[in-house]
Amino acid sequence: MSEQVTMPVIQILHAQDPELRRTAAIILGHLKDTRALPALAKVAQDPNEDRIVVRYAEEAIVNTSGQEALSVDFKVHYLRTARMYYHHDPAILVRIGQDEVVWEWVEQEGNLAQKLQARAVPAYLYNEIEAERCCWAVLSSDPRNVQAWALLVSSNFAQVIETDKILEAVHMSDAEQPPASEMEMLERNEEILRKAEAMARSAGVEVVYEALDLAIKDRRSLVAVQCIKALEEMESRYNDPGKALISALHTSDKRMRYNAALALAHIDPLRSYAGAKDVVPTLEAALGESGTRSILVITDEQDARNAFQTQLEQMGYAPYFADTGWDGVERAHRFPSQDLIVLDPRLGVHPIDVRTGTADPRMMMEGGQPDDPTKSYEKGIYYVRVLEMLERDYRTKNVPVVLLVDPANQESVRAAAEGGKHHERIKGFISRPIARENYADVLQQVFGALSEDNKMKASAIATEAAAALAGLDVDHSIYKVDEAMKGLLEVLDKNAPELDALRTHALEALANVGHPQAIPSILRVFQDQASSVPLRVAAAESMGVIYQKNKLTPEPDAIEAFQNALASNVTELQIAAAHALGRARVEPGMRWNYYQRNPVRVEPAGAGGGEGEEGEGKDD
Asked: What is the pLDDT of residue 279?
């Protein structure tokens, strides 16, 4: 019961009547609740406070903490308490029920009962609200306190996140929905808290950067993303990006990393900066986040690679392969980002062709130096070394690893792995022979159930990445969009209707790059009659832009595809094909051939489509 008394008594310290403040200090001294320390310290350190009130406040502090009143600044107390609330520290949170009560002192009301007011707040927001109130107490005395501003902004963003998360969980759940009154409360708070989000941004760019830095250090990914999105809208391209945003670009957390790359691409600073070279590769990695799990298999056995390719594709995974440790590490850093790495401990040491970076397929050598000067050894790149190299890079340090083991030495490899320094990275073992029944459960255990919601979120971030690449001004940007071309082309091969938005933006980005090498892949999308009409239209527009940029004449297969579209009954495809041809370099005779083969005949009034303006009608 005493824990519930503390919070209202703290508010009485704000009363104008010194007798009330004195009584409150005495009570708090008996309660010995550490939550009262900031308010007591503020009273004790106030040079204008009544001396008797100060004495009782000092005694209360000593009784509660054993410290002298002046040993710690009250602002430090408030910030420490705010952090405890913000981090949901069980030492400071006292659960009462479904709703929590926030106490406030309203001096202008008539009597004591009216001045001390209780306001019910949702339990899920209580800790953020109390953290916010602690920050207010600091800023009311020190408006320049950067730590308080950062924590205040973080608490504002956290309230928005908590409400959105609950509403999202309710909408995604198949269970019985909460009562209508509770849903109304959640939806009202969602709207109300948009002001909290706006007020957080009103604190200014510098403060949001401080809040982002705090979120990165605290590993509060969702708060960091909120800060990054705010900076995306607030930051100017005339400024150099802040260190916190660049740190987010290089964190091991995908959500922070991808959103930082999106923000930096949107800001598109005029001057280059440290880390700028990592923006496009990070966006390219985000393109692979479309709900399909990517698995990198590192083994020098061709039969093993063949078996994994067939089986993983049948199971719905996207397999990628490397035949050496060095190539495996390099491959893990590229598009798409890997969700799992299967690593063969029997990995040999290969001579590497320094011109291509790949292993010499003719040889596996155990010592000495190769006679051929174009070869160099992949020195010491055994599987443990591969693990070490993966852990050193922010892009791969948290990717789980499964070891491919032989039945003969399975126990020894397991013992070495589980007892070694990399045991936290190794999430399981796949035993030879390579058969899906031997490892399907291992993959399920590593990945868990990939929910539809997760697929939607993954596709959304991939779509945003493609849109960001499409929106960059290639002629004036510091970023090199063409560095993402390989990833963009791979996106076009993801033939699923739910990925049309992603593929459409990828087509726009490829048009932005303008490289002729993309035309064959784009043409396949245009020719695929199973694809949606809007997607095929986007493909035609993309080809037209590339033809125009490079002053190219379409290849015969493209000409045939455009002719088929012009001859179709789909007006959107007819227009898209005509536009593409208009942008391409085509001989006059060929253009006249298109006109001859595709006459446009209008219909008289009353024939089929009804009356219309002169010159309007159905295409033949």
From this structure: 97
What is the distance between the alpha carbons of residues 552 and 554, in angstroms, rounded to a whole number? 6
Q: Which residues fall within 8 angstroms of residue 590, CB to CB, at 6 or more apart?
A: 559
| Six-digit token string for 614 | 């002169």
126-141 vs 74-86: helix crossing angle, rounded to 10: 160
Predicted local distance difference test score (pLDDT) of residue 450: 45
**Distance in angstroms (rounded) separating the CA atoms of residues 100 and 273:** 47
Residue 14 · residue 7 · CB < 8 Å: no
Exposure letters 349-365 (e unless 16+ CB within 10 A, then b): bbbbbeeeeebbeeeee
Burial 282-301 (b: 16+ CB within 10 A, else e): bbbbbbbbbbbbbbbbbbbb
Confidence of residue 300 (pLDDT cuts 50, 70, 90): confident
CB under 8 Å to 330, separation ≥6 — which residues?
322, 357
Whether 329 and 351 have beta carbons less than 8 Å apart is answered as no
Is the model's pLDDT at 381 over the cut of 90? no
In three-state secondary structure terms, 366 is coil
Q: Which two tokens stand for residue 251?
A: 């964190």
Pure H helices in 123-242? 126-141, 146-172, 180-202, 205-218, 221-234
* 3-state helix/strand/coil string of 395-430: CCCCCCEEEEECCCCHHHHHHHHHHCCCCCCEEEEE
Residue 46's contacts (CB-CB under 8 Å, 6 or more residues apart) are 54
Closest CA to 284 of 520, 487, 73: 487
Q: How many CB atoms lie within 10 A of CB 584?
A: 22
d(CA 324, CA 322) in angstroms, rounded, equals 6
Q: Note whether 541 and 579 are within 8 A (CB).
A: yes
Structure-token pair, residue 527: 């020719």
Q: Give the sign of the dihedral formed by CA 149, CA 155, CA 159, CA 165.
A: positive
pLDDT averaged over the chain? Answer: 84
Residues 6+ positions from 365 with CB-CB distance below 8 Å: 349, 350, 351, 377
Residue 369 has pLDDT above 80, yes or no: no
User: What DSSP character marks residue 70?
Assistant: T
C-beta of residue 365 within 8 angstroms of C-beta of residue 350: yes
Angle of the 221-234 helix axis to the 146-172 helix axis, nearest 10:
110
pLDDT digits (tens, 9 = 90+) for 184-235: 888 888 888 889 999 999 999 999 999 999 999 998 888 999 999 999 999 9
Give SS3 for 289. Answer: coil
Q: β-strand 99-105 against 116-122: which pairing, if any? A: antiparallel
pLDDT at position 188: 86
Q: Both tokens of residue 6?
A: 């503390």
Number of helices followed by number of strands (H, E) in the chain: 27, 9
pTM: 0.74
In this prediction, residue 172 carries a pLDDT of: 59
Q: What is the mean pLDDT of residues 161-188?
A: 74
Q: Is the dihedral of CA 514, 515, 520, 524 positive or negative?
A: negative
By the 10 Å C-beta count (0-12 exposed, 13-18 middle, 19+ buried), 16 is classed as: exposed
Per-residue pLDDT at 453:
53
Backbone angles phi, psi at 298, to 5 degrees: -110, 105
In tens, the pLDDT along 47-74 reads 999 999 999 999 999 999 887 766 778 9
For the chain, how big is the Rg over CA atoms in Å? 32
SS3 at position 118: strand
